[in-house]
């Protein structure tokens, strides 16, 4: 059936998920991350990005170049930062990673927004808002007029990445997660779960995998 690769790309860490395509569903084979450490660090920021891409190719892509990977999903970069340099760097790096995927795997990656990844991966997260931001309950009439939104059933200040981590953790109880010395989840876990969601959401959005019924 082939294999599906998911990437969550940031300039520090790349979350990676690899699934076996079982037809109407997928089986997770690997959930990991690549955090390129470049030494000595180049003074030129563009050269640093290029070396990080080289490291990603060596540490991951070439290792799986013999697999029959049929699709690669990448989470679309969020461009909400007020810092144009940050946005430009992230877009540049995403483009480089796309090119590396194409060069090594001969596949044109498909971008999926984080909203769509989460919406289609975990449709149970879609719900109507029943309260205002300050916690005041809405009237039944106001609720009826609302459309379902992602995380609609949660408080406005919910840690969305933690919710996604919990969803993936429930689906994949075999995963050994990364903790710091204070037994708090490391940030890399969230890069990994975002890469998981982008595959599951991407395949279900395309109708290639069936959405599993939610057990209440």
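-> sequence recovered:
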């Amino acid at each position: 059936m082939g294999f599906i690769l998911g990437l969550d790309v940031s300039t520090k860490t790349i979350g990676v998920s690899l699934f076996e395509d079982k037809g109407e569903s997928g089986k997770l084979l690997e959930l990991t991350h690549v955090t390129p450490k470049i030494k000595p660090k180049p003074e030129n920021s563009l050269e640093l990005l290029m070396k990080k891409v080289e490291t990603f190719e060596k540490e991951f892509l070439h290792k799986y170049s013999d697999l029959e990977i049929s699709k690669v999903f990448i989470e679309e970069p969020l461009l909400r930062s007020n810092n144009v340099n940050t946005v430009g760097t992230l877009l540049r790096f995403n483009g480089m990673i796309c090119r590396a995927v194409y060069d090594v795997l001969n596949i044109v990656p498909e971008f999926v927004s984080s909203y769509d990844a989460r919406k289609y991966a975990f449709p149970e997260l879609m719900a109507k808002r029943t309260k205002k931001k300050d916690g005041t309950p809405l009237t039944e009439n106001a609720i009826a007029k609302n459309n379902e939104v992602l995380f609609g059933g949660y408080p406005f200040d919910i840690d969305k990445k933690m919710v996604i981590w919990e969803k993936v953790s429930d689906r994949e109880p075999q995963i050994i997660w990364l903790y710091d010395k204070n037994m708090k989840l490391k940030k890399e876990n969230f890069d990994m779960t975002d890469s998981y969601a982008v595959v599951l959401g991407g395949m279900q959005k395309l109708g290639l995998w069936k959405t599993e019924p939610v057990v209440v």
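The chain is about 40% helix and 20% strand.
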